[in-house]
Design brief:
Layout lengths: L4 H21 L6 H42 L11 H4 L4 H56 L6 H33 L7 E4 L1 H10 L1 H6 L3 E5 L7 E4 L1 H17 L6 E8 L3 E7 L7 H4 L11 H6 L6 H11 L5 E5 L3 E9 L12
Parallel strand pairs: 2-4
Antiparallel strand pairs: 1-3, 4-5, 5-7, 6-7
Helix pairs in contact: 1-2, 2-4, 4-5, 5-11, 6-8, 8-11
Keywords: Kinase, Membrane, Phosphoprotein, Transferase, Transmembrane, Transmembrane helix, Two-component regulatory system
Catalytic activity: ATP + protein L-histidine = ADP + protein N-phospho-L-histidine
GO molecular function, one term: kinase activity
Length: 356
């Protein structure tokens, strides 16, 4: 009883009432009736005020603090939001303690969520990279062991298996190189060398490089731009070349037989928009948000058959982020996909800079 707000209020009110009655009894003109009435009123008022003060300023806040601590102990992330201006103006110091604990709990919950996401990403990444490394290693291992078991005496079989083993090892080397490049980009080791150049040049170089690949699938590459316009940008030419290489290669790889790849440049006031469109099977809506993740493939089996490391779009994303740009994709199933991004237009040599 004496550990509750009412019990404490009763003791304090009784003590105050006794002191008041004792003080009034020392005065000769005070009648017994006045003592009784004064004592009753004093007790009632004191009891009410003390109870309300203890309940709202102490016990309720302590109860909230205990509830919050229990949630923290149970790792419950549903912590009630802190009050606004009213909580800051509260006269109870326990309210400030509660707000401090609440802030600490929210920060810890965010930290725990980040750690959990990182742990899930780490497990998924290890599983993905283990699988990606296993595929070319096992393929090369199988061909070499077959040759060692006697097939090396057959020259036709030997040459065919050695070429396949070499291809698997080349894929393994490309995978490792892509992983190194991606890691260097994420850690900031790779620096970007910005210089002005015309975007038509690397696009035409990529088209020439991938011409044979497109012809084997009957895919036609179209390049649309205004011949009387300049498409000079300020960027890292080698890395932007890598972006075009990945996007156009994917557009050919995942296109339909006899389809088309359309590359377009369009100038705006301060930037140029680049689009790469294909006529492939498209990307389902549930996969659109994840295609720029490492090793993520829309169709796992078909993607591996077509080659590639599963890191191309992740590298594209990081290169464009390094240029303060962002790649976007729109796609419709059975109708194809469009990848687009913007780069700043370089000012003509000798132009007067804009005044702030």
């Amino acid at each position: 009883m004496f550990t509750t707000s009412r019990g404490i209020a009763f003791i304090l009110s009784s003590a105050i009432t006794v002191l008041l009655v004792a003080f009034l009894s020392l005065m000769e003109e005070t009648s017994p009736t006045v003592l009784v009435v004064s004592g009753a009123l004093n007790f009632a008022i004191s009891y009410l005020l003390i109870t309300l003060s203890l309940e709202f300023l102490v016990f309720r806040e302590i109860s909230n603090i205990y509830t919050m601590l229990e949630k923290i102990q149970k790792k419950d992330t549903t912590i009630a939001p802190r009050g606004g201006r009213s909580s800051k103006a509260s006269i109870s110091p326990l309210k400030k303690i509660q707000n401090t604990i609440n802030s600490y709990a929210e920060a810890k919950n965010r930290e725990i969520e980040v750690l959990q996401k990182n742990e899930a990403f780490r497990r998924e990444f290890i599983a993905d990279i283990s699988h990606e490394l296993k595929t070319p290693i096992f393929a090369a291992q199988g061909y070499i062991h077959t040759l060692l078991d006697g097939a090396i005496e057959d020259y036709a079989v030997r040459d065919k298996f050695l070429k396949r083993a070499a291809k698997s090892l080349n894929n393994l080397e490309k995978l490792v190189q892509d992983l190194i490049i991606l890691n260097q980009m994420e850690s900031g080791v790779i620096r970007f060398t910005m210089a002005p150049f015309d975007l038509k040049e690397p696009i035409m170089e990529v088209m020439e490089q991938l011409e044979d690949k497109a012809q084997k699938r009957g895919v036609k590459i179209n390049f649309q731009y205004q011949k009387d316009q300049s498409y000079r940008t300020l960027a890292d030419r080698d890395k932007i070349y890598r972006v075009f290489q990945n996007l156009v290669s994917n557009a050919i790889k995942y296109n339909k037989e006899g389809g088309e790849v359309n590359i377009s440049l369009k100038n705006h006031k301060n930037h140029v928009t680049i689009k790469v469109k294909d006529e492939g099977m498209g990307i389902p809506p549930e996969d659109l948000k994840r295609i720029f993740e490492r090793f993520y493939r829309v169709e796992k089996s078909r993607s591996r058959e077509k080659g590639g490391t599963g890191l191309g779009l992740a590298i594209v994303k990081h290169i464009l982020e390094g240029h303060k740009s962002k790649i976007s994709v729109s796609s419709a199933v059975s109708k194809g996909s469009i990848f687009s991004f913007d780069l700043p237009l370089a000012k003509p040599a000798g132009s007067v800079p804009d005044k702030a």
